[in-house]
């Protein structure tokens, strides 16, 4: 992306969905209609003579809020934040379609599932991260309303300990912002007047920092689809700097230590080094990453890496530490193939069923 004109320092709601209806909206009735018990209202307020407003989220899923506004002229506007959780962006067209049916109203978008598809989600996230990158080249904070009357912000300083910078890929930046929001790690201001920096009102021309990948890591989702995590040279330099700081006493999240292990395991920006990867995956698990690190450690021992030779017993032990459905599938495989002794099909099927219940595609196929 080339130079842009950027004067916004607070992200907004994305594509507003217009629904025309004269029916009065009742939040609890709508929740009962949807049969979704985890939809929670955060705030309901009226602007006399102008609008009625609802802000709500999905408990355990949302990291930002949905907004619904009724303008008192038979027009409802439904919106979701550009930095919403991926599952909320995926849920959004269903929410809009269901709301239109509940209101006996008409959507202005005729084919909402076609227009708000996976490409729309990808473009929405990419546009917001580009806006964030552009903003942070001009001012130190990028604000958004994570909760009502409570502004969270992202800065280069908040991104730094997560191994993320303005040259990181969109998925890495978005993923770690979601991680920070979900774990309440982002700093906040309760009042806009408390912001300690004067922000320019004029338009500013900026160049968006670009991501230039030098290596990528392939992952498989629960449904079997492939995704890729790419790293730039800036990412590698950043992670190695954090590794030195960690060895010097800096506390880092386990997921970041896992990333350090990953660049050593995959040889991104450096020679492949299985022994260093084992060290960092072990540190990551001990620092609290029970999802990625033990699974990666299990895969490393299962396949071998550099001087670290394949060792199915150690792979099995690592998978046992993981909360990842994929690791549970591998435990089933270990019992079926006899990685640690005689094959045990009873235990194998127990773990295959566990992984299948968690949605892993290989386990589902195995028990069919």
Blueprint (SSEs and pairs):
Elements: E1 4-6, E2 17-20, H1 27-34, E3 39-47, E4 51-58, E5 66-70, E6 75-80, H2 86-102, E7 106-107, H3 112-115, H4 118-136, E8 142-147, E9 150-154, H5 156-159, H6 170-182, E10 188-189, E11 204-206, E12 213-220, E13 226-232, H7 233-247, H8 254-266, H9 274-286, H10 292-303, H11 312-319, H12 325-337, H13 345-357, H14 361-367
Antiparallel strand pairs: 1-11, 2-6, 2-7, 3-4, 4-5, 5-6, 8-9, 9-10, 12-13
Helix pairs in contact: 4-6, 7-8, 8-9, 8-10, 9-10, 10-11, 12-13, 13-14
Description:
- It is built from 14 helices and 13 strands.
- The chain has four domains: 4-119, TATA-Binding Protein, CATH 3.30.310.10; 121-206, no CATH class; 213-323, Tetratricopeptide repeat domain (Serine Threonine Protein Phosphatase 5, Tetratricopeptide repeat, Alpha Horseshoe); 325-368, no CATH class.
- It has helices spanning 27-34, 86-102, 112-115, 118-136, 156-159, 170-182, 233-247, 254-266, 274-286, 292-303, 312-319, 325-337, 345-357, 361-367, and strands at residues 4-6, 17-20, 39-47, 51-58, 66-70, 75-80, 106-107, 142-147, 150-154, 188-189, 204-206, 213-220, 226-232.
- Helix 8 packs antiparallel against helix 9 (274-286), helix 8 packs parallel to helix 10 and helix 12 packs antiparallel against helix 13.
- The strands form four sheets. It has a six-stranded antiparallel sheet, covered by helices on one side. A three-stranded antiparallel sheet has the order 8-9-10.
- With 368 residues, it is an alpha+beta fold.
- The protein is globular, with a radius of gyration of 23 Å.
- Helix content is 43%, strand content 18%.
């Amino acid at each position: 992306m080339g130079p842009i004109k950027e004067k916004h320092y607070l992200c907004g709601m994305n594509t507003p969905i217009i629904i025309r209806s004269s029916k009065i909206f009742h939040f609890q009735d709508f929740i009962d209609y949807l049969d979704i018990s985890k939809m929670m209202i955060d705030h309901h307020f009226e602007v006399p003579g102008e609008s009625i407003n609802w802000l709500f989220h999905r408990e355990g899923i949302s990291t930002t809020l949905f907004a619904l506004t009724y303008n008192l002229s038979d027009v409802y506007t439904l919106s979701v934040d550009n930095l919403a959780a991926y599952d909320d962006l995926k849920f959004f067209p269903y929410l809009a379609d269901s709301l239109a049916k509940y209101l006996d109203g008409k959507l202005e978008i005729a084919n909402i599932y076609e227009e708000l598809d996976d490409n729309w989600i990808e473009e929405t996230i990419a546009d917001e991260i580009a806006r964030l990158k552009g903003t942070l080249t001009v001012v130190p904070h990028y604000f958004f309303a994570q909760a009502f009357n409570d502004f969270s912000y992202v800065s280069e300083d908040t991104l730094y300990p997560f191994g993320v910078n303005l040259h990181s890929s969109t998925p890495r930046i978005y993923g770690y912002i979601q991680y920070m929001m979900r774990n309440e790690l982002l700093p906040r201001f309760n009042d806009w007047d408390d912001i300690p920096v004067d922000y320019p009102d004029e338009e500013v021309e900026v160049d968006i920092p670009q991501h230039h990948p030098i290596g990528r890591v392939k992952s498989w989702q629960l449904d079997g689809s492939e995704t890729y995590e790419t790293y730039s040279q800036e990412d590698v330099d950043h992670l190695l700097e954090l590794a030195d700081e960690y060895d010097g006493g800096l506390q880092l999240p386990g997921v970041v230590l896992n990333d350090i292990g990953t660049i050593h395991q995959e040889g991104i920006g450096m020679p492949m080094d299985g022994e260093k990867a084992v060290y960092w995956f072990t540190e990551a698990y001990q620092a609290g990453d029970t999802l990625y690190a033990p699974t990666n450690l299990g895969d490393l021992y299962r396949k071998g890496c550099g001087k670290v030779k394949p060792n199915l017993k150690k792979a099995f032990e690592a998978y046992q530490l993981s909360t990842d459905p994929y690791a549970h599938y591998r435990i089933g495989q270990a019992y079926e193939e006899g990685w640690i002794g005689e094959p045990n099909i009873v235990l194998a099927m127990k773990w295959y069923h566990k992984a299948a219940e968690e949605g892993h595609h290989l386990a589902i196929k195995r028990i069919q």
